[in-house]
Fold Cytochrome bc1 complex Rieske iron-sulfur subunit.
Amino acid sequence: MGNHSDGSPNHSGTVATAGQNEVEKFQDPGIPPHRLRLADTDPRAAKKAERQVALLFGTSVVGTLIFLVSYFAIDLGNDSSIATIRLQNALLGIGTAFAMLGIGTGIVHWAKALMPDHEVSEERHAIRTEEDRQAAVRIVDDIVEETGIKRRPLIRNTLLGAVALAPLPALAIFGDLGPRPDFALAHTLWAPAPDGKLKRLARDPDGTPIKAADVTIGSAFHVIPEGLNELSEGKLNEKAKSVVLLMRLDPNELHPSPGRESWAYNGIVAYSKICTHVGCPVALYEQQTHHLLCPCHQSTFDLTQQCKVIFGPASRPLPQLPIAVDAEGYLVATSDFHEPVGPSYWEREQHVLNNNA
């Protein structure tokens, strides 16, 4: 009691002090007892789990086959109905879902029901090059042995089949994305005909030709090549890369670069409607500022500066279509675009040089 006789807080026990009741060492609780699963003690349960895993892998194979059959067997032509398109999309989705879920759930069920689940605690040792390599090899061998894949050929074979077929839907989709951009985007229907006849600019969608007198200052037209609507096949693809915006400004507001002075006619200019960012349609024209806006990611182009990018993620101006007027007063394209339309791709710069040569 001698230490507490002064009644001070530090000696009376009312204030805790550093080190008071300190536990010298944290006690390791150890690994909890391992609880055996039914498959660990009953061979019939293990065989049942094996069949379930194989069934899930087989489901993945069936899903892949559903995808492939619906992709290749259902023909979507120009006259395909909405019901046919919906049927194919539904089957493609169902097939992909079963293909992916079959593999995923099969592996999870395999791990939870058949692979060893006991916890292991090992001391960390200093890394020694050769011994560490050998230890890593032993670990890999132990993992392969613990999976039981050597002892369970049914699981092994169904897994190999599911994994081998699973990438096929992705390959089919990638192969159907379209032709290579160096073939598809480098040339459009605006190129003159083999006999040298120039293509007239026509209104979208009715395809009627446009006279220069029809285009007033501040107006904007969505334009397609004359004759596009008469195409029997490939019409949508050709339209997607040939669509143009036609506008008229005061000629004094235009600032063409050297060599482009003749690409416009009395302030009338034509530019590709395909945004150079990711290919969305540039459909908004602000006549007071002479800005073109892509609604997808807000890329903004200045019409007075050859559609130079002034805002947004696009990295290149919109390609300009050289135009003139024929003897009847209709607007015509004097040539194709001098560069590929749309987003960038690896070989684009080479095609710019070839088109300008």
In short: The longest strand covers residues 220-225.
